[in-house]
Write a structure and sequence with these properties.
With 371 residues, the chain is of the alpha/beta class. It is 34% helix and 24% strand. It has two domains: 11-135, 3-Layer(aba) Sandwich (Rossmann fold), CATH 3.40.50; 139-299 and 307-358, Dihydrodipicolinate Reductase, domain 2 (2-Layer Sandwich), CATH 3.30.360.10. The strands form two sheets. Strands 13-12-11-7-10-9-8-14 form an eight-stranded mixed beta sheet. This is Gfo/Idh/MocA family oxidoreductase.
Length: 371
């Protein structure tokens, strides 16, 4: 069966799940990049929600979006080049693998999978299908982050020495009343997996390879299977030491990264997204002020989708996929393993046969669903 005809410059895109993250972030990104991608199909198990999304898509300029309640049927009927997934985490592995096997590229909300074992299933599907799977880590793609990464890479800021990564948010009991939240089997973890992962992914993106994690976690307020707060000490290959805090217990909400380097401190303070104004550089005594970025591109799904489309045009692996994205998930697994066992965990330590490879709770008696 041949693919449906389309202008050579536009990819056929489909969305899976039509909830708030798709309507509020993926649809605007596709609309902003309509000259490069055409939304042709949507999948949702709720027909009413699906119809409402199709009407919203029409208002955004995508008329005649095909509606499906079954992913396999959509992949067969509409043959998308790109599938954007915004369903609860429990469905990510299965849906991503199906899309990859159909030959499509995938952009999936975090976490891409619930475990390293599931991630490696996706890596195997990439090898067989010809597509790539990227996870949504949109904070990497704002111009402020791109600029900071370049200053760190070219040595302008000097060697990174000390870093802090803070995701201190607030979620009440009503938030956890949603059945799939707070459960290992459906969400994969607490704020370590579902909230702070954006921020420490950016930290890892800026500082590079991590080598060791020592962590703690607790349930202090919420009656959930997973944690509601975690903390970690991290050592990087370049020698820098960092602290990481992930919380849903913090009324004064903020997202923050600070990196103290030999020649300057770089600091990002925001909540759910950043622009250049959210970044600040403080030079060390006697050091020159680092240059400012020349453009202001806010972190967003649009910024990441642009990078993915650029990679598709070039025929190269997109950023936020493969070993790069796996490293962030491995960091989460290492944080949980250290927190639950009380031991330091080294990069590369968690592999097949390790209980934390198969599940983030590691079947620990105090933390697994069986407790």
């Amino acid at each position: 069966m041949s693919s449906p005809s389309r202008p050579a410059s536009r990819l056929r895109a489909a969305v899976v799940g039509t909830g708030a993250i798709v309507t509020g972030s993926h649809l605007p990104a596709l609309a902003a990049l309509r000259d490069r991608a055409e939304l042709v199909a949507a999948v949702d198990v709720d027909p009413a929600r699906l119809d409402a999304f199709r009407a919203q898509a029409a208002e955004a300029g995508f008329a005649d979006v095909a509606g499906h309640t079954d992913l396999a049927a959509m992949l067969t009927a509409d043959r998308p080049d790109l599938v954007l997934i915004g369903t609860p985490p429990v469905f990510h592995r299965e849906q991503t693998v199906a899309a990859l096997k159909s030959g499509a590229w995938v952009l999936c909300e975090k976490p891409l999978t619930l475990s390293l074992a599931e991630y490696d299933e996706i890596a195997a599907a990439e090898d067989g299908g010809g597509g790539y799977a990227s996870v949504v880590f949109q904070h990497r793609y704002g111009s402020g982050a791109v600029h900071a990464r370049s200053l760190l890479d070219d040595g302008t800021l000097g060697r990174p020495l000390v870093a802090h990564c803070q995701t201190t948010w607030y979620r009440d009991a009503a938030y956890y009343a949603v059945p799939w939240r707070g459960r290992w089997a459906s969400e994969g973890g607490g704020p370590t997996m579902g909230h702070g992962i954006h921020q420490y992914d950016l930290l890892l993106h800026l500082l590079g390879e991590w080598t060791e994690v020592r962590a703690m976690a607790a349930r202090l307020v919420h009656d959930t299977e997973s944690e509601d707060v975690s903390t970690a000490l991290v050592r990087f290959a370049g020698g820098a030491l960092a602290t990481v805090v992930n919380s849903v217990l913090s009324p004064d909400e903020t997202s923050r990264i600070r990196i103290d380097c030999e020649r300057a401190t770089v600091e990002l303070t925001h909540l759910y997204g950043h622009s250049n104004d959210d970044w600040r550089y403080t030079s060390a005594p006697g050091a020159s002020q680092p240059p400012a970025p020349t453009a202001d591109v806010p972190s967003s799904h649009t910024a990441q989708l642009t990078a993915l489309l650029d990679a598709h045009d070039a025929g190269t692996r997109p950023p936020g996929s493969g070993p790069d994205a796996r490293s962030t998930l491995e960091f989460a697994a290492a944080l949980y393993k250290s927190a639950f066992t009380g031991a330091a965990v080294e990069a590369g330590e968690i592999g097949p046969g390790d209980p934390f490879y198969a599940a983030m709770h590691g079947d620990h008696p105090d933390w697994s669903p069986k407790r």
